[in-house]
Write a structure and sequence with these properties.
Elements (H helix, E strand, L loop, with lengths): L5 H8 L8 H28 L6 H31 L3 E2 L7 E2 L4
Antiparallel strand pairs: 1-2
Helix pairs in contact: 2-3
Length: 104
């Protein structure tokens, strides 16, 4: 099934089609950042408490752990955001027999 380009998308659904999912994207960013920073601070405090060496490698591992925790917590919001962005409707076009706007 052919995918629509920007011109077909604009003609099918107007300029608003380019901003589908913007609200959920912004809404899902705040919890991700909050959980990421909170988990990083918690992991850092635990590392200090257990006398883990402080340095770039420990910071890298703590940051990776915090990112994993935040992404795991926020994955459902990310799934909803992607589904909202990929919703669209199919229309006929003179250049292509069937064009699906903004649909994977």
């Amino acid at each position: 099934m052919p995918r629509a380009g920007p011109d077909e998308l604009l003609s099918c659904e107007q300029i608003a089609a380019f901003y589908k999912g913007l609200g959920p994207t912004i809404a899902s960013l705040a919890p991700f950042v909050a959980i990421n920073f909170a988990s990083y601070d918690t992991l850092k405090a635990l590392a200090k408490q257990h006398d883990v060496l402080q340095g770039p490698w420990s910071s890298l591992l703590l940051g990776a752990g915090a990112g994993i925790i935040a992404q795991t917590a926020c994955y459902p919001l990310d799934t909803i955001r992607r589904r909202m962005q990929l919703q669209g409707r199919c229309v006929s076009s003179p250049s292509l027999p069937r064009v699906c706007c903004a649909r994977a």
